[in-house]
Structures are given as structure tokens and as C-alpha cells.
Hints:
Blueprint: E1 10-17, H1 27-36, E2 40-48, H2 60-73, E3 77-80, H3 86-96, E4 99-101, H4 103-114, H5 118-132, H6 159-194, E5 199-204, H7 210-218, E6 235-241, E7 245-251, H8 261-266, H9 268-275, E8 279-285, H10 291-304, E9 312-317, E10 328-331, E11 337-341, H11 350-361, E12 365-372, H12 377-385, E13 389-394, E14 400-407, H13 408-417, E15 426-429
Parallel strand pairs: 1-2, 1-3, 3-4, 5-7, 5-8, 8-9, 9-11
Antiparallel strand pairs: 6-7, 10-11, 12-14, 12-15, 13-14
Amino acid sequence: MFDRYEAGEQAVLVHLEFPDESSREDLHELQMLVSSAGVQAVGLVTGTRASPTAKLFVGTGKADEIAQQVKALGADVVIFNHALTPSQERNLEKLCQCRVLDRTGLILDIFAQRARTHEGKLQVELAQLKHISTRLIRGWTHLERQKGGIGLRGPGETQLETDRRLLRARIDHILKRLQKVQKQREQGRRARTRAEIPTVSLVGYTNAGKSTLFNTLTSAGVYAADQLFATLDPTLRKIQLQDVGPAILADTVGFIRHLPHDLVAAFKATLQETQEADLLLHVVDYADEQYKDNIDQVNLVLDEIEAGDVPQLMICNKIDQLPGVEPHIDRDEEGNPVRVWISAQQGLGMDLLLQALTESLGRSMVEFSLRIPPKEGKLRGALYRMKCISSETYAEDGDWLVDVRMPVKDWHQLEKHVTSNLTSYVINKH
């Protein structure tokens, strides 16, 4: 049913330049997408147009050039670096006598290859079904009625209508299963919220080095490779930060310009980790000449998934490929970290990144000196479990004199769950 193709196929690539900025795509990115899909590019057709044509997307002369290249090179598929309508795909296929795939179909195919978890496979299948539902006619051009006769009379549907009905039923089934997965994720998030564990989500353009950084920080062993969409399924790991305590680090799918809307909708449950994070680590490949454009594209997707207001700390990655750049932290006028320059591959600047993380998550820290009476042994035990005691001495009357440093939220937690008399034990505020 799906337009999946096996690795090793040969493709002719088509890339057009348009004056409209919103319609432009990157040719180098197309070549990386094709390589990531396991397809060999044997030919390339480029051109310039003011706008696409309704029938073939390209002009008739350019369409003939594509068909000639397909025949001369023995290509199996034509891949456009643009979104095509179903009718444009069908017209081009008739002309080229081979399959035609647009940018959205190519990205969906890569996602289908990368999905590993049950949830990831469901999300990809949902996006694929929505994408091909308008393209079913390709496989059913005969439009025959189901065969009649005694005992064989069908409902009178065309094969196309039957397939569309089955597709709708399958989409409804997947949506129900994804709702269950979403409820499970929400339960996990509520549990972390109750425990007041901050969540840090890695975001960035695809192939920026998010998974490599994730592995360096957590030793998680997540698959990382120099290819687009190496990571598809989200991974969560706990890390320990000085003065903050435990935090959850989430590795998420990479973004790309003009990310298909069906994919954004399908991965809503996954992207919710980003929406509800306390801090976003925006990983940027600063060795990429187009890093500024990539930053803009990521911010566009963040706005689209309603995560544009989540605080960001920019991670300028791959400084090992930039001559003369050493690991360092850039700060704003108030002294807060805004950029950290690192190399996740080489492990450079990891200590600075952890320092910036601690500062970003632990800005609301409190320091107190407490005088705790012997009857409050439970409070003292809680302080030791939280590892927030910096020094402790004993008064002559047996009270404990304790200096503590902790996040404000932990202080309120103690007041709520251990003792409501906590502020009465404060003898000095630092």
C-alpha cells in the first residue's frame, strides 16, 4: 500500500529555484535526505521558475528533460525537492514511466525506516496514511466495481472507495491508540511535576548533533550518525546537576525546513515533551554555513508547536571544526548564560554546559542558616537526603546549626511536606 522503496534504487533529483523565499529549498539538504533514505542519486535536473505550473510543476520542456534523463540513466524514481499535488505526481509518472516522489514522501519514507518504538511506528503510519489518502487513485486506475454474481455481490463500491473506507478506519484506529500513548506520557509528566523535577529538551535542526550531545551527557548509547533524522523516537534520561539535583533530559526528533504538517500533527504527543519543558537546549551546528537559516527554521517549528515561549539556552556545537574557537559561555547584560560553545563529539566544554544548565535551572536558589531543635530530626534527615547542607555545627543547648543551599521550589516542598515551622528556624539569610 505504501510507496516504500528498497535501498539501492537509483534516482534523478529535481530542484527548482523560485524568487519567493517561502518556496525555496536547499539542494544540499535534498542530497543528504536522499542519501539518508539509502537511495543513489544518478542524475540532477535544476532550473528556475517564477512559479510552479498546475499540470507538471515544471514546464513541459523541463519535464521532457527529466524523462530523457530517467531513460538514459535507467533511474527507478524521480525525487522532487518540493511538495507536489497528487495530479502533478500522476502526470509526471505517466510522462517519465517511473515513480515520482516529492519532498514530503521522501521524508515520510526516512521516518518509516527510522521508527523503532511502538509509538514511533504508529505516528509514522498515521502520517503516511494521511499523505497517501489523496493519492490512492494511482494504484486503482481501473475503478472496477466489485465482482457480482450469486454469493459474490459486493456493496457496489469501486475498489478505490473500498480502499478509502479501509484507510479511514485504520486512521481512526491509530488515533485511538495514540491517545492512549498520550495519556501515558501525560501521567509521566504529571509525576515529574509533582516531584518538581525539571525537564530539559534538546531541540535543533536535524543532524546538529543532539543525539551525540545526549550520549555524552547521559551515556545512554542512543543511535547517533552523520545523517538526517538519525533520531526519531524520543528518549528520556535522568541527569544530576549540582545545586539543582535530578533533571530529565529529553532527546527529540530533529526539525527541518517545511516540515510536513502531517508529521507535525502525528508527532504531537512526542513534541509535547518540548512544549512542557522547563528549558530548551537549542543545539546548532555552527560549522554549517547555513546555521543562521537553520536557527530560524527551528524557531518557526517551535512556534508552530506552541513551544516558542519556552526559555532557550543555545548550544553552539561542532567548534572542533571551527579554527581558533575555544569552549566558552556567552552571557547577557545580567550575567545569565545565553550561549555555550562546545563540541559534543570531542567532549569539549561539557563542564561549561553543565555549569550553564545549573545556572539556568537553579537561578532561584536560596541560602539560609537554620537552627533546628532536636525534635525536628525528620527535617534534618530530609535536608541530608536532599544533599543541600553545606556545613553543620551544634549549639550548647543541643540544637543543630545548619547552613543550607537549595532551589526555592525545594524550600517550599519542605514547608509543605516536612514542617510548616520551617521559616521560624531561619536565623540568617545569605
